[in-house]
Input
Amino acid sequence: MRRHLSGILLIATLWPVQAMAAGDGKTEAVKPASGNHPLKELWSGTHYSTPEVRKLQYSDSDNPAMKLFGKGEALWKKTEGKAKKSCSSCHGDAAKSMKGTATRFPAFFKLTSRPVNIETRINLCRTKFMQARPLSPESEPLLALSIYVKRQSKGMAMSVTGDGPLKSFLQKGKDYFTTRRGQLDMSCSGCHDKYAGHLYRAVKMSQGHANGFPAYSQSKKKTGSLLPQVNQCLVRVRATPLKAGSEKLTNLELYLAWRASGLEVETPAVRE
Ligand code: HEC
Ligand code: HEC
Output
């Protein structure tokens, strides 16, 4: 009974509002890359933002997260660790070597037989190849390098098929997304597949894509990876938060990348 009631109360807060028209030419729906997809058309989170927030995102000089891009560029060239190497010693010009990388991540990492996201891949290069310490989750240098790497794919379509060795991990990520949890007994899918375009409290709910992360949050006044965003959603339904670098998070990120395939990489996005 309690479960039933809380569900009704939550839905009662989800008022339909008119979806923002694509009339300003800034956002467009795309067809999902896979036929077997929960959504008929994909809209980036930017579509649901206010015009002011969009303007901020599109301006390299005003987007607050672009400061981290500059820091990432400096870190890319910085020699660190016992091997006395920088990222650029091996990868050269990021505009060439990292172009397209963000469109196919999380990717399978053979040595550990698991998918890894960009942040974990960066730390693997640091520990294995540079003999440098790994950067902590949500730390400024890790966010900076992640933004610097992902930005090299700006405007390119996400393209994660999740087949081959990724298949079972993708399925786990999908199961996580569609399973009800928390005191409110809601799944990610219950909000983002069903109620995109509706108001959740005062916020217009998007389809919950990850193509703009790391992103700057105006309300939190800081830039964060996908993790704090997902954990904020988990808190919304009063469920247990996920841990950085955990298998659950990577599998979920893999499913989100598959689910967003076709949408452009927009890192770093700006959100309310
Ligand atoms: C009770 C409804 C609700 C549930 C359940 C929920 N979210 Fe959200 N989510 C929101 C709201 C509201 C926002 C902020 C507005 C927006 O961007 O959609 C949000 C934002 C997001 C975003 C940011 C999208 C962007 O473009 O900035 C992602 C990613 C996301 N959610 C993923 C998830 C995942 C993964 C789960 C399951 C663990 C989940 N959400 C569960 C309501 C929910
Ligand atoms: C000693 C050489 C070396 C150094 C230094 C190094 N890497 Fe790598 N990196 C590699 C190799 C080898 C690969 C795997 C290439 C492949 O799979 O095709 C790789 C792969 C990557 C990838 C995945 C690329 C893709 O498209 O799949 C990213 C992202 C990356 N490195 C980032 C970094 C960053 C950021 C740094 C600096 C903190 C760094 N690397 C330092 C050797 C290095």
